[in-house]
Structure formats: C-alpha cells, structure tokens
Amino acid sequence: MILNDIRRFSTSAYPEELRQSAWSEVLARLLLANEPAPRGQPALNGHLSGHISACSSAFDSVFAQLASSPQVLLPLADGAHGHARGKHAGTVLVLALQAGHGTLTDTQQADASPVGIHAGDIMLLDPAQAWRIELHTDFRAMLVKLESASFVLRLVRTGAQELNRISTRVGVGAVCLGLIQSVADELAYIGRDELPPIEATLIELLVTCLSHRSQDAQERAEPEDTNPDTTSVQLAHLRRVCRTLESRLGDAELQIDDIARLEGLSTRYIQKLFKAGATSFTEYLKSRRLERCRLDLGNPALAHFSISELCYRWGFSDAANFSRAFSARFGQSPKAYRAAPPKDIEEQLRRGRPAQTAGPVAPPVDRSAPAGDDTRRQFQNLLSDHARYAIALALSPKRATPTSHDAQHPHHPPTDEHQPPPGHYYLPVSAKTVHWGYFSRSIKPVLTVHSGDIVTIETLTQHATDDCERMIAGDPGAESVFHWTADKKAVDRRGAGPMDASIYGRGAGEGFGVHICTGPVYVQGAEPGDVLEVRILDIQPRPSRHPEHEGRLYGSNAAAWWGFQYNDLLTEPKKREVITVYEIHHGHAHPHAKAVYNYRWTPQTDPFGIRHDTIDYPGVPVDHATIDKQFGVLEKAVVPVRPHFGVLAVAPREKGMVDSIPPSYFGGNLDNWRATKGARLFLPVAVDGALFSVGDPHASQGDAEACGTAIECSLTGVFQLVLHKKAALADSFLSELDYPFLDTPDEWVLQGLSYPDYLAELGPHAQTQVYKKSSLEAAMRDAFHKARHFLMKAHQLSEDEAISLISVAVDFGITQVVDGNLGVHAVIRKAVFPDHSGELTPGAG
Does residue 49 surpass a pLDDT of 70? Predict the structure, then answer.
C-alpha cells in the first residue's frame, strides 16, 4: 500500500487477527516498528486500536496524525518490510506528542535512563539509531518523516536523546509546536504540492531549536530555581496539580511522584507549593478524599453502597483508618453521619448552576500565619476554592426507587429456574434524573441494576417547547425539566460547552449537544471490554396533560438550519426554519401521525433575556403570540408511526463532556429508526458500570433525517439490560465489537460512520472537527468494512464470499446527514442465512 493513497487508516476496518499486521505495515511506511506496551491502560475491549491520517509531500516527506492504544514504538529494523536504511540516510523523524505520556530511552547506551515524555513534547529521532518510546496510555501524536534533512540529522546525532527533546513552553519551540498542531488540524485539506513550504519552515524552526538546545535544557529547570518570586506562576502550577490530583482521588496507590511525573514538575517543587498554602500534599490528598466520602455518605443515590465500598471508592485502603480519620475531621462516625445527613442535602444534589451558598469544608490550613502574609493567604484561598469547585462538580442526582420484583411481568423473558427473577425498576424523568446535551463518564448514576434487570425509563424530547401547551403543561416530569423563569432554570447546563456561555452567549453549555438523556444507569459488574445488550421490550408514548388536549399525543418536527435543505431552498425567504406540530394517533389499527399546523421560527427571547434568531439553543420556550400558525398543512399525508429512540448510549471512555449530537463507538445519537420495539442494541462497554442513557425519542423518522429532526415525541421505553462479559465472548463476533451493533427480529444492522471513533481519530478538537470533515463516502466505507467483518466473523465466510454477498444481498442506506458524524447503515436480512439461529453469542447457531 502507498501511505498517501490511504489518507485515512483505521484498525477498526480489520478483523482482530489482521489488525496487528495491518498496523505494522502502515507504521513501516513511517520507518517505525511496534511492540505491545509492557504496562498501561488497555485499549477498548482489550484490542489494538489505531488510526492514521497521512499526506506525503512532493519531496516524499510524510506528515501523519496518529491516535492509538498504548504500545512501544521502535525504529524499523534494516530489512523489515523491505526497508533499507541506505534509502533514508538523511531522514529525521519528528514526533510531537499531543496527548498521553510515556518514556523515551536511548537503547544505544547501556546505562541510559528513560526520559519522561508528556503531551506538548517534541522529539527528534534518528531512524538509524536505537531508541525506544514506551507510551503508557492511549496517545495522540503528529509524526513527520522529514526526507533530505541531513543538516537537522547531524544536529540530532550530536546530542543525547534528552537534548533532542525540544522545549515547547516558550519561544521558537512553542512556535514549532503551533505549526505542527496547525498542520494536524488541516491535514485533510492540504495537498501534496502545498506541503513543501511548510516542510521548509519546519526544518528552519527545528534547526533554530537544536542550535540552542543547551539553553532549552536550562529552561527545563524547576520554576523555583529560575524565578523564585513568580507567585502567579506558582499559583497556576498549584491549580494544575490540584486538578490532576482531583481526577485521581480513587487511585489508592497515588503518590506525589505520580503527580510530579504527570505535570512535569519535581516532587520537591510540589511539596513547596503545598507548604506555601500551610498544608502538605499528603494532608490535602486525605482531606479531599474525606470530603468526597462525606458527600457520598449523605447522598441517597448511593445508599446501596456500604461504607467500606465508599471509602475504597475514593482511595482509602483501610476502612478502620478511614473511620478514625472521618470522625476526627467531622466530629462523628461515618455511620452516624449517614444516618443523619445534613438538612440541605437536596440542595447539594441539585444539578445545574450551583447555588451561592457556603461550600464544603475546606482542607485544613495553618491559621498561625501572620495576618499580613498575603502570599500564604493566596495559596490557602486557592486550595479552599478548588475544594468547593470540585465538590460542586461532583454533586450527583438521586436514584430512582425500584419496584418490587415481578417475575410475571409481561415483558419478562423466560429465565433459568436457578436464577433469581430480574428486578424491574422505574426511572421517571425529572430535573434530577437527566443530563442535557452531553455524555460523560463522570456523571453519577441515577440507578444501579444487575444484568438481566428490566428498567422502564421515561424520556422527553427537547423540542417540547415548540408547543408548551400540548407537550409540557400539566406534566409534572416535563415541567420539572423545562422549568425556566427569569430567576431559575431547573436544568441549567444544556450542552458540553462552557457554563458561562463565553463562546456564543447562547446559554449554559452553549447548546453544544441538545438531547435530554435520562440516566445514566449503572450496570453492576460491567467493565471495559464487556458488551452491554440493550433489549427494547416496549415503547409507549407520553400523552398530553393539558386539560384541552388530555390524553392526546403530539410531536414536533423542525426543518432547521443544520438540515440538508437549509441552503437549498426554492422559495422566499430562502433561509428559514419551520416547525410542524403533529398529532400521533397511536391507538389505531395502523398507528400514524397527521400534521396539525406549522409556523416559521421567529426570533425568541428566553427567560434570561437572550435573543435566539435561530434554533440555536435547546428548550427555548416559543412565545406563540410571536408566530403565525398555518393550519391545514399536509392534509393528504398520513405518516406511519415507527417509534424509536434516537439516542441509546453508554458512557465514552474519554475524560470530560462529549457533545450528544455526533454518534460514535459508544452509540449515542444513532438516529436509526430500526432501534424500536423488539430490537437489541449491542454496545461496547468503555467504563465501569457501562452508564447507560437514553433519549431523543421519535414517533417517526425517515432514513437520512434530512431536514434536521424526526417527529420529536416524548416516549417511555421498557429495556432489559443484559451484560456479556468479555471472557464469555471469546472467539465470537461480539468479542471484537467496538461499535454499536443493532439486531432486529429480521435483520442485522451495521452502523457506519464517517469517523467510527472520532474522539480518538480527530484529537482534542474532535468535537469541532467532526462537523467539518465528515463525508458520506467515508461513512459508506466504514459500513462496508463492518459488513465485511460481520460476514467473515459471524458467518465464517471468506473475504471473496463476503464481498460477493455484500453486492447482491446487503442494502446500504443513509442513516442521517445532520448529526455531524454522518451515518450509512448496512442491512443484512436474516433470511439470507436460513439455517442461522440469529444469535451471535458463543454456542449459538
């Protein structure tokens, strides 16, 4: 293969047994070999995961964006994959690590010690020398294979590996890193003939950096050694250290050395930072863990956890020591505190914008410092403020109360007589049980179940505010979620954007994600590498509660600015958004929807006084005095109803919040109407507990969802959550599952996406880039790869057999063109394999 001809490569396109060889072949084009990582975090499902986007220049240099699971990178051995070192005598490899961390070792020197490398570091490597890069975590990097760079190569060979690691904090090194990052962001749009001037500029910058490497080495000295009086710099370092520490409180083995390595600081310097705040690293770590335990003990959502489980959850390794420390800190035992939590616990559990009330207990500080010691006070205030902020983010919603076990429930499938009957839980929708517009592995679960349990889950459409009278008024759950006045907004965050709306000013979360998701539900025993089977047992609509529309069913369709039609309209006004409200006739022999009226969107002002000229923020109540309703629309049309859920998701493995709009490996906004009653969706588990959420309910949708939305209609679903452990799936199709797979009574549906794992492939700006770079061609290619893999793995076909069958018997369709990460699905009718049982778990036909 020629690297430039495959501008994108992903191991997900290959069966598990072929992934390593395909990955090695592509790395060889970059003069790299690889080995499994000796330690570190495993990839999703424990399989090798790798993505490369690359482009060659007219001078045969290669610019490549890599994203992969932990591994070891080595120079390619002479003769491997046809490689001859003489052909690349003037080649230099430039590796800019964008995410992850590891070590670099000069293996030519027997006594060489590994050098830590972190995100933001640039390393210059001679492919003819011996070195070893161990990447301990999932990583993302830009690799440039510079040909005809002999002068740079001479500079590289005169220095040790430590000196060939360029400082990028300031000066030319920072400019160099910025250039490489810019090339990475625009790689898909840069042509072969456009790269030479970029290549020349990069070489000049590298020469400048290497010419001053001794100075760069000095810049890596500890900040206190060079600028002892820069209090603002030290406070910034302390904030970073606190954030890193907070994210790792659950690690019982956490030491100051770990934080030092992650932040690129010395342990001595970190100790001085905490000493300046009149505490110590050890004392601050213990206080943060105690505070997290205190919050969990007072949280009814976690009442099913024992005190020991909660203390282990936050890094305490001994329950007795925890109890003594808790009693000394808070004046009562953990058991007594749990029995009588503070009266304001309900306020603590409120989602959204934190109330301006007294925060949690701050870490202990030494109050003996002189009153005039402003510097010490600044450090103490930072530690106290960080503790309050961390607790505000950690507050979790309440768990729904399960109903009694009912083995005779009509939706219970048969169970083994030796197994207890499944539990049946009911999860009502409210401001306490939803997250709006984002997914995150950090959202605290609202319910915990076991594998096989059944959960009835209420969901709301975010478009209910298009007609509040028909779809919200009188409905306590809907009113709880959508409540918004000039003084209070029940669910403040709507999207994964900043809470202060500092980008566009739309509102908290900025509408970077729009779906109201009920959950998440924690599945006991679920671990990364397992597969969660979501059985959709039933779907029921949510009737209107308004006196004038009592019992009738309504939904809304928005032909919006993100729709396929928006820039291709025939009549004036050209750029317009139109809302059509439908009534759903559910009880008929042939359930259907009929349009009631439509109206063009007019600028709306939300209760906080923000004007919305377009549908740019979810849940803005439409003032019907400002619109012109057109009745009698679509009089001849009867829309068959096929209710389904657009969003079915487990939590992503990535840190932080993820926009709910683009679908990905964790499911999410799939918008496939086949996810309906009787279907089973299989999702790869990426985090402990799986954290299942559901939302975006639809009464009906066509393939492509062309105008932007379906008939958005609040629904209630009955789901059975079945966990398949990784070990039990060995050698089955599901053992390699790293994408959502839909199994209906009559079909298998393989979901292709432009970027099957866009967060890994597109890097830190993925949630922006996916909207710009997606294409139907890429989605079709992914659907083809998945269909081929499914036929080869699940049905033991050869590649030639699979390709022929794909062409004559597999139907490809456009799932959606409006969700950023465009979708194409492949439908394989089960009738094609009449002797197959339809089951895909081990031991099945």
Answer: yes
